[in-house]
Amino acid sequence: MPETEKLVKRSDKVAFLNVGTSENKNFQRMRKFTEISTSKNSTEYSRRYVDEDTDTVDTTGYAEEKSYAFDQYKNNTVHERIAKITDDELVGDDATVEVLVVDKTKEVEGGFEARLRKYAVIPDSDGDSTDAYTYSGSLKAKGTFEKVTATISEDGKTATVVTE
Question: Hey, which residues does 82 pair with through a beta bridge?
Answer without folding.
Answer: none
